[in-house]
Specification:
The chain has 371 residues and is mostly beta strands. 4% of the residues lie in helices and 55% in strands.
Length: 371
């Protein structure tokens, strides 16, 4: 045992220094694990293809395409793309970017004076231009907007319009089995709104506070069903978000927000229960079939247990880890474990089928037992 103790001590000095085959740390200055290197985390983090400073300065390398991107949020970016070539931007003066968020070929000048971008829709690309955003915009498919006075928006299966948004809005829908089918909708906010489609009917009173919605998943193209046929799905809000009831072929749910919620997932084929959750105090207490959570104090499941801030265990494959204390409110965050957790971890052990390693008093005392 003494030999194991001395060998282990050579690789850890209290909470300050630790070394393993794929990991070493001189806390809290620097740590390295696999492709991740931290310096005074969260000040600086570097991976194989990117690095980040204070979540403000970012560099990302794309070796497969010989590209890169540098960002200084929120004012500057530059980079190189395989298709677009070099690009740069000084916000809000001028810039172009090949792909950011869901936008492609983004360009802007004296934003919000002017910007344009492309987005995919099916097999085509739609280009949107905007002047004095959000007031004037137009799109390559004919959609346009003079917000908030009047606007037209075309989608794959529907045409949407508004007048004095959000007071008056209306839409027409074409038959599409991926949606609720042919029909129309309108709303005069904040008083009343209606949706009447082949597979959906909804009435809204003082929207979005009160609504009653029904849908019929069995209604297909050209299929006639009586108007009084029982709906497959029903949703009631009265008023939202404080009361909501929902019953569909895949889920049953009732909510008295923020006090109580019960949600049951149903098997679409036979209607049997496939999972459920009960919540109290919005998400402070969550009771799943295989896990119990009381944020941030308690979490217990098949492979983990947590009694914050005193105790935490977790099982991963054939390895079981235990430690106390566990002060960070979110469990097993890799960067926190690498750089800070050892300072408040008075005792821990890691067990595998062959042996168990123990650590006491910030790693000052360490030993191993064999199974």
């Amino acid at each position: 045992m003494l030999g194991s103790l001395l060998a282990a001590a050579a690789f850890q000095v209290g909470p300050f220094y630790q070394q393993k085959p794929d990991y070493w740390a001189f806390r809290p200055v620097v740590s390295q694990e696999a492709d991740a290197t931290d310096v005074l985390w969260p000040v600086f983090t570097m991976h194989r293809d990117w690095w980040r400073f204070c979540y403000v300065v970012n560099w990302h390398d794309y070796p497969d395409t010989d590209g890169y991107q540098f960002t200084l949020l929120p004012i500057w970016f530059n980079g190189r793309d395989q298709e677009a070539g070099a690009y740069w931007g000084l916000f809000p003066i001028y810039g172009s970017h090949p792909h950011i968020a869901m936008l492609y070929d983004l360009k802007f000048a004296l934003w919000p004076l002017w910007h344009s971008y492309r987005m995919p829709r099916g097999r085509e690309w739609l280009t949107t231009h905007s002047v004095l955003f959000p007031f004037f915009s137009w799109r390559s498919d004919g959609a346009w907007s003079f917000w908030p006075v009047y606007g037209v928006n075309y989608q794959r299966e529907s045409d949407h319009r508004y007048f004095l948004w959000p007071i008056t809005t209306w839409a027409s829908y074409r038959e599409d089995l991926d949606t609720s089918g042919e029909g129309w909708s309108w709303m005069f906010w904040p008083l009343y709104g209606q949706v009447r489609r082949a597979r959906e009917s909804q009435d809204m009173f003082l929207p979005p506070l009160f609504s009653y919605a029904r849908s019929w998943s069995r209604r297909g193209r050209g299929e006639e069903m009586p108007e009084d046929a029982s709906a497959d799905s029903v949703r009631v809000r009265a008023p939202w978000p404080f009361f909501e009831y929902e019953s569909t072929p895949s889920r049953w749910r009732i909510s008295f927000w923020p006090f109580y919620e019960r949600s049951v997932n149903l098997d679409y084929k036979d209607g049997g229960e496939s999972g459920s959750v009960t919540r109290f105090g919005w998400k402070l207490v969550e009771l799943y079939d295989d896990e119990t959570r009381v944020f941030p104090f308690w979490a217990s499941g098949r492979s983990h247990f947590r009694f914050w801030p005193l105790w935490e265990t977790e099982e991963e494959k054939d390895v079981t880890r235990l430690r106390t204390l566990s002060l960070f409110p979110i469990r097993w965050v890799p960067a926190v474990d690498r750089n800070w957790a050892k300072y408040w971890t008075f005792y821990e052990n890691e067990s595998c089928p062959v042996y168990t390693d123990y650590s006491l008093l910030w790693g000052i005392i360490r030993w191993r037992t064999w199974k």
